[in-house]
UniProtKB/TrEMBL annotation:
InterPro entries the record matches: DiNH2opropionate_NH3_lyase, TrpB-like_PALP, TrpB-like_PALP_sf
Name this polypeptide is given: Diaminopropionate ammonia-lyase
Source species: Aminobacter carboxidus
EC number(s) per entry: 4.3.1.15
Statement: the UniProt record of this protein carries the keyword Metal-binding: no
Length: 398
């Protein structure tokens, strides 16, 4: 299912705060912070010419975030970046002077960060980023996970020294519990979703994601005509559309936001024209995107610069995982987790449907940018769905 953006704010300029958060200067700040990370490397940008030919498109390029900062997910950019920013801001307030990123591990800053605790809710990837960021600065982290988060993902977070708290219910229930417990204890919530009165930190998280698209534009042979991007609560979709709109203006690509059909909070919000909280239904295989309420700051951006919204089913998500593991022709092998290829799933659905192609202007000249947002962050689940382990793919090249 695909709908065009009919919101009254569509095509209006971003609000000043959002343009500042997601604009060109902000992305340059993110890059300056990343340069201080010893394991920072731009992630690969892969071309899929055989698949583009199969779908009747001009080009498909895919940013592979499975290689991001050792965490295997784009979320490595958001939570850890926000934690570092918040530590430096606390140091500035305490020391009464500006504190640069170069001082992050100085004795004065370390003394301050050691007193700080950061908490968040997560489906897996965001929590790892917050925990890693806290470990990097010598702070404490407490991560809240709901019952649907696999033991493998919990263990992956705990490896960064996080205290893990299980919460009954959905991701949204864990968000509420994290906010409650952090408020009681005086801890700092580093959430990737926002609510009334809580926008700045989710804005910093989204700001971290702009690095993906800054890097992509540096490597792409031509500006993309289309971007298909998965949403969850909307953070990465807002970062993509906001940054590229700020940087490219009227030359920006068509943005298509992709939701799992079983957790389509952004799609339903777009359809109704206002933030919608969904009732929990049957779980989706796209576990990292299983969110039932949008981030309000993300929706504020998407209502202005997203062009279309669509849903994809679980079967197409698994098809994408297999297609990337066993690619057409000489296209490169890509390891994509259950949620990682949702943008490509949206492209497959749209490219195969004549009405959808026409609605968003897909044709033989289209140049599509996609993001594989995560690798096999749960290897057992990956093997179950694809029939191969990530190691099998790396060894055999199939």
């Amino acid at each position: 299912m695909l709908i065009r953006n009919q919101h009254p704010d569509y095509r209006k300029p971003l609000e000043a705060i959002d343009a500042e958060t997601l604009g060109v200067a902000a992305a340059e700040t993110v890059e300056r912070f990343l340069a201080r990370r010893p394991n920072h490397r731009p992630t690969p940008l892969r071309s899929l010419p055989a698949l583009a030919g199969e779908l009747g498109l001009g080009a498909i390029h895919l940013k592979d975030e499975g290689y991001r900062l050792g965490l295997g997910s784009f979320k490595a950019l958001g939570g850890a970046y926000a934690v570092i920013r918040l530590v430096l801001e606390a140091a500035k307030q305490t020391l009464g002077r500006p504190v640069d990123i170069a001082e992050l591990h100085s004795p004065d800053v370390a003394k301050i960060s050691a007193t700080m605790t950061f908490g968040c809710a997560t489906d897996g990837n965001h929590g790892r980023s917050v925990a890693q960021g806290a470990q990097l600065v010598g702070a404490r982290s407490v991560i809240f996970v709901h019952g649907g988060v696999s033991n493998a993902r919990v263990a992956a977070i705990a490896r960064y020294g996080a205290v893990m708290e299980r919460v009954a219910g959905t991701y949204d229930d864990s968000v509420a519990e994290a906010a409650r417990v952090c408020a009681v204890n005086g801890w700092t919530v580093v959430s990737d979703t926002s609510w009334p009165g809580y926008e700045r930190i989710p804005g910093l998280v989204m700001q971290g994601y702009t690095a993906i698209f800054r890097e992509a534009l540096e490597k792409l042979p031509e500006t993309p005509t289309h971007v298909f991007i998965q949403s969850g609560v909307g953070g990465i979709a807002a970062a993509a559309s906001g940054y590229l709109a700020c940087r490219l203006g009227e030359a920006r690509p068509t943005f298509v936001v992709v939701d799992p059909a079983r957790a389509a909070c952004i799609f339903e919000t777009a359809r109704q024209g206002k933030p919608v909280k969904l009732q929990r239904g049957e779980p989706t295989v796209m576990a990292m995107l299983e969110c039932y309420e949008p981030s309000q700051v993300a929706w504020r951006v998407l209502s202005r610069v997203a062009d279309a919204f669509m849903t994809v089913d679980d079967e197409t998500a698994v098809e994408v995982m297999t297609l990337l593991a066993r690619p057409l022709g000489h296209d490169p092998v890509v390891v994509a987790g259950e949620s990682g290829g949702a943008g490509l799933a949206g492209l497959l659905v749209a490219a195969r449907d004549p009405d959808m192609r026409a609605a968003i202007g897909l044709d033989a000249t289209s140049r599509v940018l996609l993001v594989v947002t995560e690798g096999a962050t749960d290897p057992d689940r990956y093997r179950e769905l694809v029939g191969l382990t990530p190691g099998d793919i790396a060894i055999t090249g199939k």
